[in-house]
């Protein structure tokens, strides 16, 4: 598995509870990424290594440095660790850039709906678009109050630089309450010639999605990035205990534990059900948090945005998307 190393070149407070980290790649050659992708970042938390995904707010077409922007999550381990502990000159490790929240075509018009830290991948796509393509762009950007608007200055500078191509509507809950459907409808292109990109809190994205559905926007014109993982209950088929005739031996933090699964179960869900404190975040194969090494047996890895074929040949799997395919399996999170 390729672990990338970056030097933190700058750390900038964007708002009272978010920081941008400007990162210089320390390896040889270039790392390619597309605006809208994220870095699965490795966090050396005192309770054990965590992986968390952070969208790249830099643009590969313009910015020399990589940039991620992290907003503190109340009670969150990874985001608070990064904001409190990651300093200029430190080295940050990550897996390769991943994700498919990016325009598949660029020569069209775009409507972006961003809420809070959901602006990060959208900011990158907007910059790339304005500076390397020719689209017209509308951004609806919702925040609770004016002090929590990430990239405010940079966005309004872009609007000044590209007045005919970028329009921004900043929605502040403190002034207007939460965004209404009629505000969203204003943003929906009546002739269906735009691509829509949504990233923000779940309730915000659900409301926008409903409005797009009502306006008969084809699903193929809508891209959605969710920052929130899926609960373990939702990632398992929940087989009955009599079906659980497969043994999974888990090596974690120097200890061994056997759990029992059926071939329909995702192994991460069963580990969590058995009270194991296994690293995990998205639950859907996107973030890399649950990477482990398959030491014995076979699994089927159902979806995966993080590992490449050589990682899989080396035995790396994602526990959240792996179902057993042999009667005895051994995985290690300690490799
Ligand atoms: C593709 C993708 C891109 C992302 N990009 C960004 C980005 O650009 N910027 C950004 O800021 N974030 C981004 N995120 C979110 C980020 O990955 C983290 O999920 C976020 O920072 C929270 O992580 P944490 O470790 O701080 O919180 P966690 O420790 O994972 O906790 C998350 C929440 O769950 C609660 N919680 C934790 N454990 C329990 C428990 N046992 N019981 C009940 N509640 C619990 C916590 O209190 C907290 O509210 C992205 C996520 C994804 C999937
Ligand atoms: S929990 Fe995100 S990849 Fe498995």
Automatic annotation (TrEMBL):
The lineage of its organism: Bacteria, Pseudomonadati, Pseudomonadota, Gammaproteobacteria, Pseudomonadales. It comes from the Bacteria. Residues 246-335 form the 2Fe-2S ferredoxin-type domain. Keywords: 2Fe-2S, FAD, Flavoprotein, Iron, Iron-sulfur, Metal-binding, Oxidoreductase. This is 2Fe-2S iron-sulfur cluster-binding protein. CDD domains: fer2, PA_degradation_oxidoreductase_like. Its cofactor is FAD. Residues 1-104 form the FAD-binding FR-type domain.
